[in-house]
Amino acid sequence: MKPHPKPVVPKPVALSPEEIAFVRGLVLYEDSEILALNKPPGLSSQGGRGQVHTLDELLWAFARPGKARPRLIHRLDRDTSGVILTAKTKPAAGFLGKALMARKVAKHYLAIVTPGAPEPRSGVIDQPLRRDEQGREAFMRPCDAGHPDAETAVSRYRARAAGEGAALLELSPETGRMHQLRVHLASIGRPIAGDARYGGALVVDGHPVPRLMLHAAALEFPHPAGGRRRLEAPPPADMTALATALGLA
Q1: pTM for the whole thing?
Q2: What is the CATH number of domain 17-245?
Q3: Where are the alpha helices (H) located in the chain, listed in sequence order?
């Protein structure tokens, strides 16, 4: 019998004092098993290109000597802000990973969309998606359920506030496909402001949109030690400022 290959253990990443202080300043909640952060926009969760460290690498700031860093349980797109959960132990990572697969983790987002609120103002988008590779870039596309690459994708939405040219939506994805909320909203003619990839407006009512206006506002999940937890993160200043300027706050 061939011996099982040893698991690849990631090598520690050397971080500057400024990077350590930065990532420690993002902590929303921490106990012996989990660590939750409020990820800012512009920071890649994993696999970023270039010289800037990803959030996954910055997690080495929380590693104890000789121990592994906390493990990301899920990802957020680079320009999406908000709650992101990590596990500090291998058992906690396994527990939370299974909870995610069993859809026992509820994610709640906020998004600014154009042009105005969807009709109806609340509902469910049940639209299968497929992955579309174009060079080094990956997109998700709406498709028929019978497509060989189709993946089930379901999202709930509700308009919290609406103006003539934009709306603030509450979103709850029931599945976890890449770019799911972005593609689903674009598919009903309400792309997220700042989402150049999927047709989002870069200027709304004369106001420049600095980035993708999508924020992971809350996360509800079973805790490895028992019970359920809800963690929340306030929207960043740029999103709050745009919502206020558009009369949505």
Answers
A1: 0.92
A2: 3.30.2350.10
A3: 17-24, 55-58, 90-101, 180-187, 237-245
